[in-house]
Amino acid sequence: MGRQLTFEIFRYNPQKKGDVPRMQTYVLDETVNMTLFIALNRLREEQDPSLKFDFCCRAGICGACAMVINGRPGLACQTKTKDQPEKIILHPLPVFKLVGDLAVDTGVWFRDMYQKTESWVHTKKTFDPTAPEERMDNAVAEEIYELERCIECGCCVAACGTARLREDFMGAASLNRIARFVVDPRDQRSDKEYYEIIGNDEGIFGCMGLLACEDVCPKNLPLQNQLGFLRRKMGITALKQIFCK
Questions:
Q1: How far is CA 39 from CA 18, 79, 156, in A?
Q2: Of 132 and 68, the one with more pLDDT
Q3: pTM exceeds 0.70
């Protein structure tokens, strides 16, 4: 006989006039290998069709089902109820615009991030579609791939103390994105050009080093390594600009 789970879920529809934020209680029988994704779908199908939350892939790839689970950002599809207490409290991710209940709009935030970080390979080479693909060292390719595994779920941003205090802070996802292009030999930007993007309190020097971003990352990305790498690199760049004038 499985446990009987109690869910305390944040409810609020900002598009509905007169609606107010509140917590609503649901009770559900636990089944074998149940995830929060399965539980939420059952609640919506069996008890409350008005419950709002996002999902897509169900495999920890899209990042759509990110939410705060008992005070910790995570993916509903990766969180098994057996690893949680009988009472599970769910909130939407902070920082991002609330769509309703557990659903937030991460798309606008990440679109702005891509524009701010100029998230594309900067090169003066003219593209030749008939030319063979350029060779790349395997170690470099693997390092780039490691950083490309970010699924843009927003968990690192939601867990970031600086991002919670300052809307202009770029966050670990943005800085990880910059690190991906720094190590890419195809990108011809100089350290000074990168410094102009992240060499300030909105970028790498705004990071307080609380480690929460890496702690909650569902893909286990080495975010602190990349933040440390960028902090050293941008610090050296700043010193060069001061003493080489």
A1: 29, 10, 24
A2: 68
A3: yes
